[in-house]
């Protein structure tokens, strides 16, 4: 498509004026019978207009010309997902993610995110989590390449939205370290090191032009300098991809009963919402999770971890009974020697 036509189409799509976009695409149809982007946008616009069957027909016709198109397979996957045809959607989205077509990594991240959601909707939480983690790996690699190709030229992080102090072991720090190890293996680096303090400062001072994130010495040792983490953090927070994926993983954990893991994911998602973006999903999900945990807390006592806690809870229960605050239908708690709690219905005959 010409730049002028693409700009006009982008204007309609940006303003969600899909009817005008559809009319415009039909008016230039004769010029782009063999243009992949044209067919993709025609299918995309019709999906947005909820003409799912027509959008599918467009994709199926175009995919005969472009069988390995990531874009067309992605559209077919989304259409199948919307129509609750999850198995079919999974196959299209897997093909979109695996295509050798030259696509931006951000598009692959979107595809894997959609694939994970489809697995979840189909009841396959294992493959859903695998796909979310793969999306994080692709996103992490994209961040790494940005850092490597355009290393940041600063060491002072004052005034920047960054709070890494080198103590975290989960979430984004774990991702940054894994991606660094992966690329060191690919590049056949002899050793990977994470210097801090004087060593890092000396490398930066000796090599001011080379940047301050990654440094390979003559013996093929790679130094991952402190600014690698700062830049990794800042790039992750520059768009919504990372926050969105972590929110979705939190939803998956919450739905499978892993409430503590869900809480960590929602908190990580909230931390990486870009400034000025009104993304409320993790806030709402965390609030809902709190209500669930509160209900559980009201119904059950926390399983003690020590003899002192066992005795303390036993006393609290007896005090409540003595005050008449435990009703006849409520459960009593049997404390086993190993510290676990067994709930039993009260036996009225034994208490008489």
3D structure, described in words:
- Helix 5 (70-82) packs antiparallel against helix 6.
- This protein is mainly alpha-helical and 352 residues long.
- The strands form two sheets. It has a three-stranded mixed β-sheet with strand order 1-3-2.
- It has helices at 3-14, 18-27, 36-48, 52-63, 70-82, 86-98, 105-121, 125-149, 171-186, 197-206, 226-236, 241-255, 259-271, 281-299, 307-322, 348-351; strands at residues 191-193, 214-216, 221-224, 331-335, 341-345.
- Helices cover 62% and strands 6% of the residues.
In total, how many beta strands? Answer: 5
CATH topology category name of the domain at 3-103? Serine Threonine Protein Phosphatase 5, Tetratricopeptide repeat
Instruction: Give the helix proportion (percent range).
Output: 55-70%
Note the beta-strand portion. 5-15%
The dominant shape is: globular
Please work out how many helical segments DSSP would assign: 16
Mean pLDDT: 80
The biggest sheet, with number of strands, parallel, antiparallel or mixed sense and barrel status, is:
3 strands, mixed
Series of secondary-structure elements, N-terminal to C-terminal: HHHHHHHHHEHEEHHHHHEEH
């Amino acid at each position: 498509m010409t730049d002028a036509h693409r700009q006009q189409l982008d204007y309609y799509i940006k303003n969600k004026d899909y009817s005008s976009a559809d009319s415009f695409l039909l008016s230039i149809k004769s010029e782009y019978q063999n243009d992949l982007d044209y067919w993709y946008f025609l299918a995309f616009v019709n999906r947005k207009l909820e003409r799912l069957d027509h959008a599918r027909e467009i994709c199926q016709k175009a995919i005969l010309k472009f069988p390995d198109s990531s874009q067309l397979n992605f559209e077919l996957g989304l259409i199948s997902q919307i129509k609750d045809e999850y198995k079919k959607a999974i196959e299209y989205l897997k093909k979109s993610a695996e295509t050798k077509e030259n696509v931006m990594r951000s598009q692959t991240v979107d595809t894997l995110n959609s694939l994970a959601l489809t697995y979840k909707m189909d009841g396959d939480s294992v493959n859903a989590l695998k796909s979310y983690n793969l999306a994080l790996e692709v996103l992490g690699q994209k961040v790494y390449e940005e850092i490597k190709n355009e290393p940041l030229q600063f060491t002072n992080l004052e005034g920047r939205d960054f709070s890494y102090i080198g103590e975290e072991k989960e979430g984004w720090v774990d991702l940054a370290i894994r991606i660094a190890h992966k690329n060191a293996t690919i590049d056949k680096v002899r050793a990977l090191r994470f210097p801090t303090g004087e060593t890092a400062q000396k490398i930066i001072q000796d090599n001011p032009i080379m940047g301050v994130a990654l440094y390979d010495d003559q013996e093929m040792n790679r130094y991952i300098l402190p600014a690698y983490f700062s830049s990794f953090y800042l790039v992750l927070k520059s768009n919504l991809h990372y926050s969105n994926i972590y929110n979705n993983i939190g939803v998956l954990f919450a739905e499978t009963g892993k409430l503590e893991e869900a809480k960590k994911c929602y908190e990580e998602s909230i931390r990486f919402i870009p400034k000025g973006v009104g993304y409320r999903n993790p806030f709402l999900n965390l609030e809902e999770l709190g209500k669930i945990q509160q209900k559980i807390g009201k119904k059950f006592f926390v399983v003690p971890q020590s003899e002192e806690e066992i005795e303390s809870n036993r006393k609290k229960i007896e005090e409540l009974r003595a005050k008449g605050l435990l009703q006849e239908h409520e459960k009593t708690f049997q404390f086993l020697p190993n510290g676990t709690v067994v709930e039993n219905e009260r036996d009225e005959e034994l208490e008489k």
